[in-house]
Structures are given as structure tokens and as C-alpha cells.
Amino acid sequence: GVGLIRPMYYHYPSEAMAYPVSMDKDLGQEPTTRQYMFGEDILAAPVTSSAGCTSTRMPLEEPCGVTPQKVWLPPGSWVEWHSGRSYTGPQLMDKKFANWEIPLYVRAGAIITTIPISTGNSIGRPADPYNILE
Q1: What is the pLDDT of residues 48-69, one digit of tens each?
Q2: Largest CB tally within 10 Å, which of 7, 35, 65, 95?
């Protein structure tokens, strides 16, 4: 079988951005090759570099703790999980994230269950609504 966490080229074998440009440089580790698919519908693009704060006088639009990062969205419609913004791929985006964030993009139309588990209940509360991202 196929694992739950998959490299981008498993789902997008014909897309050049799903592969490293060169395996000689940093073992092929580039911002877009560090991202992965979590199942069929969730794309995770973890922040893997530091913000590089070296000055106490940062511009207001660049607060300390924010890391610029490239995110590649494959073909299709995607929703940024934390903001709800919609994007259409393929595109390479320059984004900024806090070091503690895990940027997630969900394929539009995917059904992602988000029922919280209550104490003493391993199933969740059936009265809670499901979220459908479109």
C-alpha cells in the first residue's frame, strides 16, 4: 500500500516542480521538495528555516519570527487551511509564515472531518458540524 505521508511526485509525476532540481545540492532539499501530501487532499508545506532575526529594529511588515518561504501548489483549486483563502494551481507562491505555523492547503471540495474528541469519547460528538472547503 501507499503511506499516508507522500512525496509530491507520487501525486504529480508529470509536474517538474514535484522533483528536486539537483540531488547534488543539499540532497535535493529545496522549499518545494520539503512539502508533502498528507493523504489525497492535504498539502503540508512545513517551515524548515529560521526567520533570521539579526536586528532589534525590524520594519513593521517584517516582524521577527516570520519566515519567507516558497510554496508550490499543484494543478487544481486549493484552500489555505488557516486563512480560508482560495488559490488556483499550478503556481509558485512567495509566502510568509511564523516559525510555529504548519502551512496546510486543502484540495477544494475535499471533506475533512474536524469533530473534536470530547473527554471519555473516542468517536466525537455527532452534533458538531463538519466543514467542507470549496
Answers
A1: 776 666 555 555 555 667 888 8
A2: 35
